[in-house]
Amino acid sequence: MTTTLILGKRLSFKHIVPFLSGGLAFLVGGIILYAAGVDPLEAYALLIKGSLGTTRAIADTLVKTISLLIAGLAVAVAFKCRLWNIGAEGQLYMGALGGLLVGIAVVGMIPVVSVIIVLIAGIAFGAMFSLVPAVLKVKLGVSEIIVTVLLNFVALLFISYLLHGPIKAPGFLPYSPDIFPESELPILVDRTRLHAGLIIAGLAAIFVHFLWKSKIGFELKSVGMNISAARYAGMNITKSILITMAISGGLAGLTGAVLLAGVQHRLIEGISPGYGFIAVIIALLGRENALGVCLVAFFFAVLLAGSESMYRTLGIPVAFAQTLQALVLVFVLIGEVFTRIHLPRRIKRVNEAKLENHGKQIGAPAERGKGE
Amino acid sequence: MIDLIIGIVASGIRMSTPSLFAALGENIAERSGVLNLGVEGMMLIGAFAGFIGTFVTGNVIIGILFAVSGPMVMAGLMAFLSVSLRTNQLVAGLAIWLLGVGLAALLYRLTFGVVTVAPTVPTIPPLDIPFLSSIPVLGPIIFHHDAMIYLAFLLIPLTHIFLFKTNIGLKIRTVGENPKQADTLGVNVNRIRYISVIIGGAFAGLGGSYIALVTTGSFSEGIAAGQGWIALAAVIFGRWRPFWIVLGALVYGMVNATALGLQSMGTTIPFQFLLMLPYLLPIAILAAMYKRSVAPAALATPYKRGER
Fold first, then answer.
1. A6-42 tens-digit pLDDT
2. 3-class DSSP state of A128
3. Cα three-residue angle B144-B218-B269, rounded to 5 degrees
4. What is the mean pLDDT of chain A?
């Protein structure tokens, strides 16, 4: 009886903490704005109005959600298996490139088929690019963190080279030619920019959700969580790492292909304003599961869309959104401590015994805070 | 031709300095068992703080003090997260990185707004060392640099002595190898880790300020260009030994300088491929080196008293 009460109490507290932490991040953000001579309340009102105020604003927010969601899932898949793929940005660009190459070459297909081919090309290019760090990891034991980060720069420079040379469209600016109209993702709601990528993003989330429930997903997770136990259970470590990275890079590539087919319709150097990096925070805050990533991606899209209207009206730099996102992560990390206050197992058992014996509620043991 | 080579080598040394500073500091943090992935973010904060400090006061020394203290605060946060709260160090480091990237850009834009011409500060001029700078070849390569480079190269033996010849260095290394044993011997594990991480922050700040105050004389959002990550690679390459870390940073700088040298000579290789080299080479080196490197045993593991 008492135990369930305590458990229920602790569970609800655990769920409130992330929101409190987010609120604290906004408080700190507000202080920064106030120090810069901006009324924080006015700014935050604009943030909501600019992202959710009108149909058009909501559509734009959803368009951003699409990219953040797929990219967030990409990073979450890797992180869940304890593969630190920080290279989603580069994989995204390679995916956009793959989509472009198909989108400007394949013509005369039924539109649906054409779009699907573009997206598959995006997935393939992203996955292939992510296999570079994966192979280096399994063959030579090189940590994937630094390699994936550095490959972002390589990918961006490579795209820059292509856009200034081989795939440059006639004209002054470094743009690629447009993809054929039948390769574009159709617009879902008239007079907005909301495109069918929303459905793709939803499918991606469902895919990741069921991946973790599947046998393969379980194996991938197990390898990440405890490599020696997984090896003992007869799992193929190398294969698991390669598959995980390919799924992660494939989803990042899909993000790029969707951006290409849904928003830009051509490749440009700034096709992603750092979605692959924001995805790192989204994956961590979403606790690496599909639903969590969906929620955080939408929340961050609100921040991004809102920060654009804050910039237009009050001149608050767009970097404010980025700072706020990182602050939310920092505060959630701090807040997590309060959710995982668990007593050392032995003491807990003693306490539970006492509880049963005396029916008394036991507070924190006296030992806490004494050491260290 | 010889002039060109001298020029490339000298500029290679200059280009390796930011990541050299950062890597020497990160090495101290990692030696204590804390892997701080936030180097890039701390360098950006250092670059911004150094720039704004110099811009406002007109005094480059005050600017550098700003540049050192900003990242020290960030490093303090890193230590709080990873040492006191025992957050996963990789996650905490990524948070510090992204916070630094966002905050540096935000503060810069809040201070200067959107400007057509980026504000600048005079860069720190090179300093000729009397007599030595007139030695042919060696003079212009080694003895014709700004004061910060000399500081960087002074810090190489100093960090070596600090880590391997002093009492606190021994404590840092013990904490990084076997925190439990260190604790048993009466070493305050958490305090040592805090100190090491914060020293790492100060060094990253020096590296960041070098970019803003010597290389460019201005600040922009992507100014660190991955040099914080290069520093992390240099630490692995150098097998956590200051004198080898220098080599890692120098290789990066030399490749960068050679790429830019080739570009100015008007080669037919597209410049983007040349610019890729400084990022590809560390990957290749890590691939060749990784198996032979031995990281501090307790790297990236939080320490909690009373646990196995």
1. 444 445 566 777 788 888 898 998 898 888 888 888 8
2. helix
3. 70
4. 83
- DSSP helix/strand/coil, B295: coil
Q: Any CB–CB contact under 8 A between A161 and chain B?
A: yes
Q: Residue B270 and residue A164: Cβ atoms within 8 Å?
A: yes
Show Cβ contacts of residue B36 under 8 Å, excluding neighbours closer than 6 positions. Answer: B26, B29, B30, B42, B75, B78, B82, B89, B93, B96, B197, B200
Residue A248 contacts residue A77 (beta carbons within 8 Å):
yes
How far is A110 from A216, CA to CA, in rounded Å? 34
Instruction: Compare all CA atoms of chain B with the CA of A38 and give the residue at the minimum distance.
Output: B110
Q: Are B78 and B93 in contact (CB under 8 A)?
A: yes
Token code pair at residue A256: 């790029």
Location of structure tokens 């953040």: A68
**Looking at the complex, does the CB of residue A366 fall below 8 Å from at least one CB of chain B?**
no
- CB atoms under 10 Å from CB of B164, counted, come to 13
pLDDT of residue A14: 66
Q: Give per-10-residue mean pLDDT for chain B (308 aa).
A: 82 91 94 92 94 90 92 94 89 93 91 79 76 73 80 92 92 89 87 94 94 88 89 88 90 89 81 88 82 73 74
Residue B296 has phi, psi (to 5 degrees) of -50, 135
**Measured distance CA(A154)–CA(A84) in Å, rounded:** 18
Beta bridge partners of B52: none
Helix (H, G, I), strand (E, B) or coil at A169: coil
Sequence spans of domains, chain A: 65-300
Domains assigned to chain B: 2-115+144-292 (1.10.3470)
Where does the pLDDT of residue A225 fall: very low under 50, low under 70, confident under 90, or very high at 90 and above?
confident
Question: How far does A148 lie from chain B, in Å, by closest CA?
Answer: 9
Determine the Cα–Cα distance for residues B144 and B134; give it in Å rounded to an integer: 9
Please judge whether B236 and A146 are an interchain contact, meaning their C-beta atoms are less than 8 angstroms apart: yes
**Distance separating alpha carbons of residues B262 and B256, to the nearest angstrom:** 10
Q: Inter-chain contact B276–A334, Cβ cutoff 8 Å? A: no
